[in-house]
Write a sequence for this structure.
């Protein structure tokens, strides 16, 4: 087991593109990484992000989401089997139940594409542009049973220009997400 090196056994949950997964894999391969990604789980068989796990030989599994209970039961078993210490949600678009969060009993992190508590839920970029906000950004927070409401670990702002659309803002925010997630993990695990 990787425990002797002090690295946290980490599972990353995805639903789609997986660009945050890619950045977490990149971080996990650095010498000073505090995590080892031992498992990638997707609720979507066609998630492009699965390719990144395959390329890096990371055990990856698709759990079909027929209903929340059966998904979470299977997921919990896998997490236990793999001695998972930390879950990173990275574009995982299903909501985990309070029961699951309690049962897992260790930290679950999420990255969200807005400056929480603003714009919980979906469609964050269009909402920020439509409201003529001056800034948007990304947040990494601990997952609790209330959607996008757990303790904030780290946030970073980006300026919204008059010329920005939801799409262009999404691109800008995604770029900062890729740096923010590893930084937030370091902050969480070193308490700095
Ligand atoms: C990211 O922007 C992430 O913040 C967001 O989905 C995108 C996934 O991109 N997550 C949420 O909206 C969660 N509510 P990726 O698959 O390329 O990492």
């Amino acid at each position: 087991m990787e425990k002797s090196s002090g690295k946290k056994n980490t599972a990353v949950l995805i639903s789609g593109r997986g660009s945050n997964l890619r950045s977490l894999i990149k971080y996990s391969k650095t010498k000073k990484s505090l995590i080892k990604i031992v498992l990638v789980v997707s609720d979507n068989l066609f998630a492009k992000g699965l390719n990144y796990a395959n390329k890096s030989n990371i055990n990856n599994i698709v759990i079909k989401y027929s209903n929340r209970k059966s998904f979470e039961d299977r997921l919990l078993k896998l997490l236990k089997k793999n001695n998972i210490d930390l879950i990173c949600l990275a574009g995982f678009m299903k909501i985990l139940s309070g029961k699951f969060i309690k049962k897992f009993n260790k930290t679950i992190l999420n990255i969200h594409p807005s400056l929480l508590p603003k714009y919980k839920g979906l469609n964050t970029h269009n909402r920020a542009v439509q409201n003529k906000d001056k800034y948007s950004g990304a947040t990494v927070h601990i997952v609790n049973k209330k959607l996008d409401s757990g303790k904030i670990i780290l946030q970073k702002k980006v300026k919204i220009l008059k010329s920005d659309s939801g799409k262009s803002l999404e691109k800008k925010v995604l770029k900062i997400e890729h740096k923010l997630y590893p930084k937030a993990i370091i902050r969480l695990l070193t308490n700095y």
